Known about the structure:
The protein is of the alpha/beta class.
Amino acid sequence: MHLMGGYGMSWRRKWPEQGINRHSGNIYKYILIYILKYKSNIEYVNNITSAISPASAYISRYIILNTLLISECFIRYLLYARRQGCHSVRRTDATLDGTENKEKVMNDHGQVKDAYSAYGEIWSDVYDEYAQVLNKAVEIDRAVSFLAPFTSDGTALELGVGNGHIALPLSGRGASVHGLDNSEKMLASLSAKGGGDAITTHLGDMAQFDLGMQFDLVYCINNSFSHMVTVEQQLGCLASIEKSLRPNGRFVIHLNYPYTADFSGSGIYGDQRTTVMHVDERRAMVRFARHDRNQQLFISQDLWITPAGTRTMPLKMRYFYPTELDLLARFSGLELLERHGDWQKRPFDNASWRYMSVFRKAT
């Protein structure tokens, strides 16, 4: 559970096959022409927003241009899918590269209880592709180099181990690695990988666990801790970590620093944002996000668009400020030992967008 469990109905629309075959190509092309026309005509966009205040006009232009960009991506994929012989747009269980899975991963997001418990079931089949698309290889190597000295050929426990992006290379450095996850599919994916048999896996909830042993290192990285959205879960997790650490053990946690400036727009939709995360010749990734300031939540749907169809991936994360994390840790019997701005141990300062914290048992 590294990057981000499920709710929200996925949308679906079908057209009669005859209508699609005869007319859709020209319709898509006409729509694309108009999108490109207005997307490139900044003067036109400025004119239609000139009657409102400068701040509102800026936000309106941002929304209009981003909407046009997303529409352009979608129409281009419709045209590409049509050329490949895919005559209807449908929600499928397509992987990110456009292939369809024989085993269905999600039937209906409305049937999923919460984003935390369903994370692995929804993401397990595309997790490796997601990391590859976002170029995570270098980041993984740096994280393992940061963690390895804390094990010294000892034992390590990863919370939210997923399919082993960190656990497998850390095991290759000589550590005896255990992995805890609440998803059977994620753990099965890990075990099926090369070297997966070297990882001792445990099916369970990191919000409350007791594996009957203690470790030199417990780590929870890539925002996995943020998937627990209640204080009870967070305190339960930290108390379990404190019990699982050896006397000189270390707990390493990696979180992103909350960046809420993109959600500071005025108006009824000021708490929402749309971001094109990735575009290549085979797929596009768009994130629709909402900020709940009072609950400190980022709630989003990632939309994957491929020639095989579309797929939504729900996320719900609670963000933490460093001082809040330190207080929760103190309540749980842990104290801060060091904090860095990245895996290369650069200082944590006002320019840092993430932070890596190292805790020990309180003395």
